[in-house]
Amino acid sequence: MGLVSAKEMLDKAYKEGYAVGHFNINNLEWTKAVLLTAEEMRSPVILGVSEGAAKYMAGYKVVADMVKAMVESLNITVPVALHLDHGSYEGAKSAIAAGFSSVMFDGSHYEITENIKLTKDMVERTKKLGISLEAEVGAIGGEEDGVVGGGEVADPAECKMIADLGVDFLAAGIGNIHGKYPENWQGLNFEVLNEVNNVTGNTPLVLHGGTGIPEDMIKKAISMGVSKINVNTECQLVFADATRKYIEAGKDLIGKGFDPRKLLAPGTDAIKKVVKEKMELFGSANKA
After folding, report:
1. CB of 14 closer than 8 Å to CB of 227
2. What is the largest CA-CA distance in the chain?
């Protein structure tokens, strides 16, 4: 199976009350770990790529070609979407041209009229090509690859305006942030989430900053329309921790332990474990 739009998998998740994991990828090991785990869990999956990660991996086309080839070579049979995360207007156009099957246009930092104008244009572009589109209202807090958001709580009326344009899924700020959550974090604003879900019709909602949110909040959010949950920081943390332990144990000094294939293996296995746990928590296992 080649790459697919994320629309069908998220519409199904919304109707059946579970969420599909969006896991950011940063290199070949990351991609392979997520794909193999998705196949093992029989779960649909969304591979997220930030503009910074795409640049790091030598461009959108390199990423798209690598993912397509890997899906084929690994005989991945579950639905896989390749999604641009927090894309700018120009970034989204570039990702579409390179072969991404899904894009996010993040216009949350614009005034709502400009966000509507640019999102509407992006809806028209993606609909023609059968590519799914995510939009955002209310900036997500924290920082991800230089994209900084103040953690605003979205205005449900503005969410409805964007959803009515025909976007396939919508990210609405409800107090969630990228990166590690501070000790004084107030938690998700379920009152706003409920209102957003009520006014946006059957539009699947997206929860960014999935790392560190308590499991009970995750499950409650899914029950209130969240059908896509983004995970990035947690995979980065466990990868770094496993790699550190490998080196501190001196394993890189034994035989050919310095070989990147051996050096990066513990971190890759750690990512697989996180992805598996998240798919179980989100309820997407055996939904492919």
Report:
1. yes
2. 62
The 10s digit of each residue's pLDDT in 27-62 is 999 999 999 999 999 999 999 999 999 999 999 999
CATH number for the domain whose boundaries are 7-230+273-282:
3.20.20.70
Q: What is residue 133's predicted lDDT score, i.e. its pLDDT?
A: 98
Question: Catalytic: which of 11, 65, 85, 259?
Answer: 85
Please state the domain extents for the chain. 7-230+273-282
**Stretches in the chain below the pLDDT threshold 50:** 143-144, 146-150
Computed from CA positions of residues 39, 40, 41, 47, in that sequence, does the dihedral angle turn out positive or negative?
Answer: negative
pLDDT of residue 186: 78
Identify whether 85 is a catalytic site residue: yes
